[in-house]
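G., before I forget:
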Amino acid sequence: MKKLDEKKIIDIFQRKLGNKKFISEDVEKFTLGKTKIIAKTDTMVQSTDIPQKMGLLDAARKSVIACVSDFASKGVKPEYGIISINIPKSISTKEINNIANGFKKACKEYEISIVGGDTNEGKEIVFNVCIFGKSDRIVTRKGSNKGDLIFTTGPFGYTSLGLEILLGNNKKINNLIKKSVKSVINPKPRLDYGLKNKRYFSSSMDSSDGLSTTLNEMSKQSKKKFVINKIPINRDLENYFKKHNRDFNSAIFHGGEEYEFVFTIPSKYRKIIIKNSILLKTPIIEIGYVELGKGVFIQNQNEEFKLKDLGWKHFK
Amino acid sequence: MKKLDEKKIIDIFQRKLGNKKFISEDVEKFTLGKTKIIAKTDTMVQSTDIPQKMGLLDAARKSVIACVSDFASKGVKPEYGIISINIPKSISTKEINNIANGFKKACKEYEISIVGGDTNEGKEIVFNVCIFGKSDRIVTRKGSNKGDLIFTTGPFGYTSLGLEILLGNNKKINNLIKKSVKSVINPKPRLDYGLKNKRYFSSSMDSSDGLSTTLNEMSKQSKKKFVINKIPINRDLENYFKKHNRDFNSAIFHGGEEYEFVFTIPSKYRKIIIKNSILLKTPIIEIGYVELGKGVFIQNQNEEFKLKDLGWKHFK
């Protein structure tokens, strides 16, 4: 989840561990026997990833969900999981039960069998989840072409507001607030949509580090220009920000933790993927298109503004 | 590494996560495609597993080694690894380099390719390692039969003395002290020996939770009596304990962290496994035999004493 300044630290690990031609991808791949295995690990740390008002059941569930989200973006079905937890000595049986129920819930929702793990004593709660599946081919982050259309699997921005509410003292409860808090504590990656539509995707990436980070990474890896002509925000959230005289771009593009994904398709697949979005009740949003060039730009009337990568920049 | 009271906590997780017929084993198994995958995860936590005098390079290396040790006991070759680390904000580049070098060292020694992982901010250092291999069959903990011979892959007890020295203020340096400290900071699981001899083993188990725990678990799973007629202690360590008027049984049987393994064989394989121990320079020690009955007993002259399971009992 919250990561250190990756540029520096990951560089050191990559150099030392000899992965020279490293291309950043949502999942890990390795072959054992004749099987191409896909794996994803994610760590949730109490002091940096779990707001105090978030229960342990939701936190444990979300630690699995974070991995599922990456599998969803690549169109790979998770099959097995290994869970390691650190818990402080002071933990209660009730809390252990909540944690176990959270893992159980996520595994039931996404049909994952837990095959093992370990339990350790530590100063703070840490959930480390690793999930496994198989796939002969995954959609990469780098495959988009000129003329492709860019989509997201859902609206953005609720998590930023939700986190603000969870971390603050807001006492007001209305539908928007409920929805925003729920987006943080109960995210639902669009696994079905990824599984059923990956054949149409030219590229894809999980968006949980923030939409601006995702779009910039996909643009960079594809060596193409991404033009965004529609902001994926719902009316209720837009009205909220306008009413409070606040700019919503930061929430939409730089918040992160949406656990949606971004994908590009050749325009000929527009009809079928929209049809599938209705069938699977996944509210996909067409946000722009791919051009020759580089960088990510937001098109507003006749002007273009460069969208910088300002997602999880970790350890400011 | 150091684990909570497992009876209670693991029971909750097993009940919730639906693994009803759970049999404790050194490694996890699952099938993807046609490949039977073997996995092992281990977590090393700074506050409970890393003595202050142990460097981060050795600690990082050991976090991989702990997993390799389980693979060694089952005769499975590790091929890939995923590493997750938590590090506090205050960590230095030098420390990051030490950590990366420790992982690199272990991976080079045991020919493991790291395929990914993640880096997170946390209150204390945590290394979570998961390694992968494949095997159609593993040696279980439960396969021993009446008349089988019981062996360990090395002498026990050095780690207990080594840990005592690392945690204390001992200023004296002699060969035994060096050897004992080295046994803690630089354990070397007998992977080659496990790989080349597993066909002869009727059962086996990694001993890092303590020899008494290992023997009791193997006896219990096999529903056989284990009779120990030779204590796997080297002369130098035995002399040290005698000189200081200390009982060495606790160090030998209940210390743990040796990263050796215990195995049983039908007696007809005695010659070949001893021959292989010379070839592979692995000092195996025959410590007893398997009988009908239950429990683990130390045979001393004509008397037998029950050996209780007093290894890592976690969270006293």
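The CA atoms of residues 39 and 61 of chain B lie 18 Å apart. The mean pLDDT of chain B is 92.

More on Monday.
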